[in-house]
Every structure is written in C-alpha cells, then in structure tokens.
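DM from R.C. (forwarded with permission)

"hey, sorry to bug you on a friday — could you get me a structure for this? deadline for the figure draft is monday and I only need the backbone to look sensible"
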Amino acid sequence: MTPASVSGLGGSVRARSVAVAVVLALVAVGCGDDGGDDGRDPASRGPIDDCDWPMWGHGVDRSFSYPCDTGISPATAPDLNRLWFFNAEDTVTATPAVVDGTVYVGDWSGNFYALDFETGEPRWTFEAEVHPIVYAGQIVSSAAVADADGTRTVYFGGGKTLYALRARDGSVRWTHEFGTEGDEEDPTEIESSPVVVDGMVIVGTDVHNSGNGEEAGLYAFDAATGAERWHAITAPTEGAAAGDGATGSGCADVWGSPTVDEERRLVFFGTGNCVTPEGWGDLSEAIVAVDLDDGEIVWSYQPHEQNEDDLDFAGAPNLFEVAGRPAVGLGNKDAAYYTVDAATGEALWQTAVTDPGIPRPGTNFSTGGFIGPTAVADGVIVGGTAVGGTPYLHALDTETGAIRWQQPRPAATYAAATEANGVVFIGGTDFTFRALDLQTGDVLWEEQAMGAVSGGTAVVGDDVIAVAGIREPGVGNQSRTSGVYRFSIDSEPVASTTTTPATVETLTPEQEAQAAGQPCIASPCPLNFDLTRERVGGDTGSGTLSVSLDPFRVEVQAEGLGDPSRWLRPGSAAAESGATVFALFASQGTDDPTGGLLCVLDQSFHCVTDDIPIPVVTFDRISLLAVSDPSELPPLVEGFDRLVATNSFEFPFLPK
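My reply, with the result:
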C-alpha cells in the first residue's frame, strides 16, 4: 500500500512517520460562533444546506460534483483570484468540508482546524492524540459534518481514532480507538474519510499490510453515541464463511473511502493489496459491496489474479448508469478504471488510461495509477493518476469507458478531482492548482501553490476551497508552507493568516547520530530512479551516491544516463525549454524546497564536491535533475518534470 506522498522533488517509499508525544487537548484559538450568536447549536437553526460541502465528495454518493447553481463556469473560471491562505502547522492532504460558513480540515501534525470561511482565521483548533505508527500523517482523513440527535457534529479519523467533535466549539462528543487501546505499536490507522448516512458514520481502517492478525475493514457507528452498529472485516477472514477464498492478515486494507447507494441500501469501497501469496483471498484488491443495514458482504469484484505489485483500490467509488443499469466505478493503482453492476458486481467495462507505476515488479511497491478519487458529472468521469505513465489527467465516457480526452500539461497527482458547472478542479505534484473544461480538457486557469496539491477541493457558491503542501512520509522536517486556500470569482482578497516556522539550524547529538547512521551517509547507496523509471522506459542507467558530513563531501558516479533531455516529462514546460546537463542538488523540504547546487556531472557522469549549498541549514534530500541552468534550483512547477533520481533522508542532516 502506497498512498499519496509525492511532491515536486519527492518520492513514495514505505516509512514510519516520526513519533511526537502529544496529549489529547482542546486548544482555544478563536471564539467562532458557527454562524450565529444566540448560544444554540447550529443544528437547531435548520438542516445543513445542500449547497454547502459537508463531506468528501460532497454527498454520500461521492460524485465530487457541486449540485447547486454557481457563477463558476468555463467562461468565468479565468476570473478566479485568491482571497486568503491559512498556513497550517504541517502538511494538509485532507479535503476541507464547508458548512455554516466554517471550513473544517486537519493536518499531518494532528491539528484539526475550524476556519472562518470569510477570513481564513481559526474559530477553534483541536489537537488529536498522536499515534506513532502512521503511513504519512496523523490526519489524512477528510471530515464529514452532519447533525446527530440535534447536535451538529464533525467526524474525522486521526491516527487510529475516529473523532466526533461538536461543530460549535470543537469539544469532544465521542471517540472510538481502533485496534488495541493505548498500544503505540499497533499498525491500525484511519486513512479513510467517513461518510454519514441514516444516523451512522461509516469509515474504513487499514493495518499497513501487517501479517500479525490485526483486523482491517469497514465499520459503522451510531453518529450520536459512537456505539458500533456493525462491521465488515475484510482481513483476516480465515475460518470465516469465505472458505477457500479466505483473505489473510494485512491482505485487504481499507484505506480508501466508502460510497453509499441509499436506494439499493448498499455501501461500496475498495481494498488494498496482499504482500504474501498465501494471504491472497477473495477480498484482496477488490471492489466490495456490503449491506447498509447490517454490513453483510453482498458481492466483491476482483480484477487481478494473485500478484505482488501493490495494486490497491483507493479513492472512493462513483455511482452512475450504463445503458440504464445502475453502476459503480473505481480506479485502481494499475491505472485502469473498472465499472461493475451495482447490484451484482458483474463487470461492465474497464479502461486502462496509461501505464502503471511499478518500478520494481514483484516487490509490492507501486507509485502510479488512480489513487485520488474521480469526479462524475454530465456523462463524464474525470480524474488524475499518480507517478507512472503519462499523461496524468483523463476523462472517460460513463456509458462506454471510451477516453474522452487526456491533458498532457499537468504533472502526476494524488488529489481528488472536483466538478462544478462544467469546470474541473484538480492540483498536482507540479505545485499547480488548475481549472479545466469538463468536456474538452482545456486548461481554463491555473495558479502556483506553495506545495504539491495532493488534497481535493470544496466548492460553495462562487468560491473554491483548496489545500496544498506535502512532505514525504518518513522525512522528519515538517512542512512550512502547507495550508488552505480560498479562491473566488467575485470577492476581494483579505489578509492571509500565515505563520511560517523558522528553519531548523542546529541538531542535537542524538539527531546528528541518527543522521550519520542513514544509508548514503553511513555507506554509499544506489541512486533511486523509482519515480522516473517509466518515463524513460525502464532504461535508467545506474549510479552511486556517497555523503560525508564532517567534513562535508558528496560524490556521485553514474553510468548510462544518456542525454539529459530524454528525462524531461513529455508535454511539460520543462520539455519545451529543454536540458543540457545533469546537476546534483541538496534541498530541505518538499513543499517549498530550500537548497542549492552541489555539483554538475561531467561527461563521465561523475561529480564530487565539498561545497555546502547553504550554511547552517539542514537537508533531507539529494536529487539529480536534468537542467539547462545548474546555478539554481528549477522553479517549483518544473521540479518533478526535470527529475532523474532522488534520495530522501528520514533524518535531516547538517553539513559541516
């Protein structure tokens, strides 16, 4: 399983996030009133407006399409301007919910924010309890806002706990901790985004492919009390009714999110990969339907034979019709979109949009395909694919699966697509947030963000709420420029709420020892071509990186790299301007990289240097890029497009 994790110079490798001890607490940051000042819960003033954006995908059907009138259109999208930016404490990849003039979203540090829609100022902030074992960040789950027994409540996953907070002030209504209570070594986590329906909150759990018997699956709780209504265990199912198709431990994680068909009383979701042949079962890498009322499995659809290529179903299923038949569709990390009959799971059509990102087949590691969810509107399914074959943005016909269009300009993406009145919003690893025409794929508007855009978008009226910022899982430096953006076609900008943390300039003796013991520093390591292997048809060449810290020295020796221009992503601005040399850079951070040139490879693909790019600054990445001007880091939007190889460091190092 490899969820969203790549940025302009970043990569995706399985790693454990750095543990930070944080006590569960409510922190008063503002005095917001949830849209009123009469002291009543907002639920008492009426139901949630259909034209708000209360959960991931907007509604329980996860259409990711705005259903209300809006001034946003293909004609007006070029008029979008940024109104404010809220600088979060760390990376934000969750998609905001917007209800009652409040924006709800969490970050990787475990902070959950309620922001004033008009100004971006916090109304309140909640600190979730940190769970040391998470894939990426503490809160990657997108919130859902709903009324339960007369109280407007915000639901989201943080670490391995499902939270229900009162929308008015962020106080805890109830929580449910999965796995073994208080066990910091338990691999259970919530990366899924909850859906609220019929008085229940439904969410998935995963265990990071652990083979130690921890349960993964889909769970339903009473939205008001937190009492469990039902659960559907996807792994392990040994000894259950699955019989010969029993699924082994860690072989059907649910890190994607559920979609609900209220008419048919069904819940649909996807499952993850299996890392062992003996654990493979009927629920591995599958689209699954369970009964909304009791969680019983109704059917499962499994397009793959047993494999070890990490071909998860993530995202969230879409609901639409094919020749009048109710259908459910979901993209896979194999870069194909699969559509099946909603009632039976019978296959209807499938379309491969590009090549999957499998740099080393058979090693349970992939980087590409559909990870972020697709939007569906007006007979079109639209969404992006991650690091693998190009192009990265695709539109399919709901009836036939035929490719309507593909757009070569955007880079790879882990973000959700959102549609509003014929306009598609999506960002990517090129640090760019875009609006495109749903029917043609033409780029209508774009703006550079302060980080890769790996979260989705909420649309409310004439306004767009987006997020940006990323850091690689396992890299210790927190994001400095991640946060939440508001764009509009008809409002005046207001002051942004930015608080950029200071750059770390010193390391403790313990941190220095951790840095010195890492691969590439303790001993030479191979250059990592995983993110660009498919770009050059697997013909990457090879190389070795060696780093000494005191005194500082870096050396690279490569072979078989070929001409620099062949590494440039096709269709990108970098490909248009070209490249003439290979240059080695050290950088800090993947959202707003700070760093500089180490050395330029000579004709034998060798370089060595003892120059420190920036004194008293820590670094967490060394990257080889194809450039024309090696004197400075390329623009953020071109970083990934010029990437040749990149090696990240879990513990930042300080050259001396």
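R.C.: lifesaver. The first strand starts at residue 25 and ends at 27.
me: no worries. Residues 509-516 form the longest helix (8 residues).
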